[in-house]
Design a protein that fits this description.
Layout (H helix, E strand, L loop, with lengths): L10 H12 L11 E5 L3 E7 L8 E6 L2 E8 L18 E8 L10 E5 L2 E7 L15 H5 L25
Antiparallel strand pairs: 1-2, 2-7, 3-4, 4-5, 6-7
């Protein structure tokens, strides 16, 4: 014998109603959808922010963390009588993204078009190996003949053994 429970059709609606009624006003109520894609020389973050303008959004880079925050205001009016249903989310939001090491915060750019925020994050330049000149002592540097310090190039590959010593 299985136990069947009849679902309460309005229980979820009452839960949402009381959650909104008694929530702290500063509570985060929604989180916008965001996509992060990678291109050859940059990352692109796109966020859907319908009903918002660039004045409603703040973008900051601090300590290698990109923060997108803002607030979408409710545009419904309070009514004393009757019921009305509110499904669109509003309130404050904040999303953070840890950036790769070496990203130039001054090169991050953003634009806002038709409710979509696009943030372009340039990739950090790869660290290139650097050749280090080795300075010799006074007697070794005289062997060069032109007074310049010898530079070390190439690799330390082993030579095959030969029958005759190399002079």
């Amino acid at each position: 014998m299985s136990l069947l429970i009849k679902p309460e059709p309005f229980s979820r609606e009452f839960d949402r109603f009381f959650d909104r009624l008694f929530d702290a006003p500063a509570a985060q109520r929604w989180s916008p959808a965001m996509d992060l894609t990678e291109a050859e020389d940059h990352f692109l973050l796109k966020a859907d922010l319908p009903g918002m303008s660039e004045q409603d959004v703040t973008i900051e880079v601090d300590g290698g963390v990109l923060t997108v925050s803002g607030e979408r205001h409710a545009d419904h009016e309070q009514r004393e009588r009757g019921w009305h249903r509110i499904e669109r989310s509003f309130g404050r939001f904040q999303r953070q993204l840890t950036l790769p090491e070496g990203v130039d915060a001054d090169a991050v750019s953003a634009e806002f078009d038709s409710g979509v925020l696009s943030v372009r994050i340039p990739k950090p330049e790869r660290v290139q190996p650097r050749r280090i000149a080795i300075a010799g002592s006074g007697k070794d540097s005289a062997a060069v003949g032109d007074g310049q310090q010898p530079a070390v190039e190439g690799s330390a590959a082993e030579r095959p053994a030969t029958e005759e010593p190399v002079t």
